[in-house]
Amino acid sequence: MGVAHNIGKYQLSRTIGEGTFAKVKLAVNTENGQYVAIKIIDKHMVMENNLIFQVQREIRTMKLLHHPNIVRIHEVIGTKTKIYIVMEYVSGGQLSDKMSYVKKLNEQDARKHFQQLIDAVDYCHGRGVYHRDLKPENLLLDSKGNVKVSDFGLSALRKPGDVLSTACGSPCYVAPELLANRGYDGAVADIWSCGVILFELLAGYLPFDDRNLMSLYKKISKAEYTCPEWFTPSQTKLISRILEPNPRRRISIAEIVEDEWFQIDYKPASGIEFDDKINLDDVHAAFNLIEVITNDIDG
After folding, report:
1. pLDDT, tens digit, for every residue of 8-33?
2. N- to C-terminal Cα separation, the chain
3. Which of 170, 164, 72, 74 is nearest to 120 (CA)?
C-alpha cells in the first residue's frame, strides 16, 4: 500500500492522467469529502523549457473561466518544486473511452456533444483563450453524459518542437495552417479540430488517418477525406464548411451555431463573465518561489 500524501486539505490518491510536464491525481477534500482532480506540474521541468511565465499566465486565465462545459479550476497551491492545480473531478471518463467501445454515436448524442463543445470553445474564444489541442481525450463526460472540456490554455504547454509529434497524439486533429509552419489564428484552428471531432463522432473513425506522418499531413493539407454513405446531406455540408483547408474561408463559430443541423434540440449553455473580484492570490503565491529557485540555479 502506498503512503497517503496530503497537500493542504487534499488527500492525494491514484494517478488518473499523465503528460509531458504534469500528472493528474484523484484527491479528496478532507473538509467536505468532495472528490477533485489535482494536476501536478514540475516547476523545474517548466523552467528548463522557459515556460514558467506562460504557465502562470495560462493558470490565471483558466481560473477566470466559468462555464458548464469547461472543467473548473478551484485553487492553485505551490511548493518549491511543484504547482498543484486543484480542478473539478469529472467522473465519466474521456469521450475517447466512450468512442472506443461504442464506435460511432447516434446522431442525437453526437450533436449534443458537438453543441456542448462549440459552446465551450465559443465562450473561451470570446475571452482570448484558445485550446490548440482539441481531441476526444481532452473531452470529459460527467455523470449525466455532458461534455466538459479539459486543459484549456494548459494544453499549449509542451516541449519546443513537440507540437505535431505522434507522442502528443494529436496530428490527426491539427489544422492545415499549423502544418504550414506559419503564424495562425488559434480560434480558426480550434474550429477545424471541432470538425474532425464531429466527423469522428458520426463516422466512428477519423477523416484523416495514415500511419505515414507525411502522407497524413498531405491529406490534411488538401482536406482529402470521404464522408461515409450514412452521413446525411446536412451533416456532410456542415463538415465540409468546417474542414475547409483555407482558414480564411472556414466557417466561423457564429455560422456553425446558425446551421440548421446544429440548431436541432440546441440548448445553449451560458458561461459567467470575467469577474475582476476573483481572488488570484493563490496563483501569485504558487509562483512566489520562482525568483528564489532561479537564483539558486544561476548561482
Report:
1. 999 999 998 887 778 899 999 999 99
2. 40
3. 72
The alpha carbon dihedral of 231, 235, 236, 240 has a sign of: negative
Residue 8 CA to residue 33 CA, distance in Å, equals: 14
261: number of CA atoms within 13 Å, CB side?
Answer: 18
Give catalytic status of residue 133 as yes or no: yes
3-state helix, strand, coil in the chain (%, to 5): 40, 15, 40
70 phi and psi, to 5 degrees? -130, 135
How many structural domains compose the chain?
2
* φ and ψ at residue 54, rounded to 5 degrees: -65, -40
Q: Is 39 known to sit in a ligand binding site?
A: yes
Residues 48 and 61 placed together within one structural domain of the fold: yes
Task: Choose the catalytic residue: 119, 122, 133, 151.
Answer: 133
CA–CA separation, 105 vs 73, rounded Å?
A: 30
- What residues make up the domain containing 81? 5-90+272-292
Nearest-CA neighbor of 121 among 229, 197, 36, 14? Answer: 197
Predicted pLDDT of residue 53: 77
136-187, pLDDT tens digit by residue?
Answer: 988 999 999 999 998 765 555 554 444 433 333 378 999 998 888 777 788 8
DSSP codes joined into one string, 32-84:
T--EEEEEEEEHHHHHHTT-HHHHHHHHHHHHT-B-TTBPPEEEEEE-SSEEE
CA 299 to chain centre: 38
The model's pTM is 0.84
Give the count of beta carbons closer than 10 Å to the beta carbon of residue 285: 12
Do 111 and 194 fall within a single domain? Answer: yes
CA distances to 2, 9, 73, 142 from 34, rounded to whole Å, are 21, 11, 14, 15
Residues 231 and 208 in one domain: yes
Three cell numbers at 107? 446522431
